[in-house]
Amino acid sequence: MKRVLVANRSEIAIRVMRACRELGLTSIAVYSEADREALHARYADEAYYLGPAPASESYLNIKKIIEIAKECHADAIHPGYGFLAENPSFAYACEKEGIKFIGPSSRVIELMGNKVAARQEMKKAKVPVVPGTEECVTDFHLARDIAAEIGYPVICKPAGGGGGIGMKIVNNEDELKTAIESSQAIAASTFGIPDVYIEKYLPHPRHIEFQILGDAHGNVVHLGERECSIQRRPQKLIEESPSPAHPP
Asked: Hey, which CATH number is domain 3-111, 3.40.1160.10, 3.40.50.20, 3.40.50.720, 3.40.50.970?
């Protein structure tokens, strides 16, 4: 692996490119019309125009990114986070073209990158999950029945992507339809996947994560837990490890 295309922009792209420099790898940037003069496009060893300003026509354009990767002879693609990082179709497109996708396999992303699929897989493994839908929600009447069954407040979430983007808290039936439509629109424009689902909203949870790393050779380790409960809208502000609330 000698040439890495970074399919992202701004701070995360620069982080990846800096790592490439430290490893002696060539970094390749892609940029939209709005990012012609962006730092990541100037910081990279090479830079290629990707498309118009809307993310749907540039940073979410799988076909165009793969075309550029082949044109510039990239050995690998790093997706950064957001955009296509959790899109199994992107990982699969890389695999199909013989380009190393720096991240999980398309199969793993398909299972865990989509929260509805992840919920289904966890239930199969008998892992407890928050009450909610087992399929994506497209019909308001079905959503209304489900919300009434599990009880308000509920939360409408994009099935693909993360970072708290597109999540809408719903306190009653009057707010439900607008919340679903808004969440779907944000999910489509940010992640390229309009699917959303509903689950019970927990007003005061402890958000504790266990970081797990695995490689292509079957080696798996965990890095302990981290407390992520201090958030705003609802983005994590502080992560503390180990968690002060978690016993040994």
From this structure: 3.40.50.20
Helix (H) or strand (E) holding 75: none
* Residue ranges covered by each domain of the chain: 3-111, 131-200, 208-240
C-alpha to C-alpha distances, 13 to 18, 113, 150, 191, 232, nearest whole angstrom? 9, 21, 41, 17, 24
Q: Can you tell me the distance from the alpha carbon of 59 to that of 116, in angstroms, rounded to the nearest whole number?
A: 24
Decide: 207 and 146 in contact? Cβ < 8 Å. Answer: no
Q: Is the pTM of this model over 0.85?
A: no
Q: What is the pLDDT of residues 74-103, one digit of tens each?
A: 999 999 998 999 889 999 999 999 999 999
Topology adopted by domain 131-200: Dna Ligase; domain 1 (3.30.1490)
> Judging by DSSP bridges, how do beta strands 46-51 and 26-32 pair with one another?
parallel
Distance from C-alpha of 83 to C-alpha of 132, rounded to nearest angstrom: 25
- pLDDT tens per residue, range 143-195: 999 999 999 999 999 987 677 888 999 999 999 999 999 999 998 888 888 88
